[in-house]
Amino acid sequence: MLFPGTVTAYVPYRILAPVDVPDLVSWTLRQYAATSLLTFGVAVLLMSIWSFAIAGRGTLAPFDETKKLVVVGLYRYVRNPMYVAVMLILLAECWFFWSSNLLMYTGFCFVAANLIVVGYEENRLKHKYGGEYRQYCARVGRWIPRIPHESAG
Asked: Three-state SS for 141?
């Protein structure tokens, strides 16, 4: 939780500081909608971390990576649900605070995530899991969820 927490909480707090969070009774419809998106993003993040721990028997930390390729839970629909969750959380914060500085930071995070995923993680996973990972990539989108096709049995 340290890395996603830093990216989605600490850095935005530093970008926005000092910021006054309005009282709940003075929230606009936009802020309620942003809070719903943030809640959804947090749920996606927690479910993804849970899948890593249970199905992959590891964590997102490089020193305790998964022992198995994780293709269950949300990973059945999108290859990088943790990154998607982080982007949803950041977009929700941009929307809630209506912050262009936070939006620029979110854009930077998206570019960085693409560079990390495409330039490092996918190559490492291809090397580690070979054909199993290549088949997974053919079935499941990197950023956009796909509904898996069940074969008629």
From this structure: strand
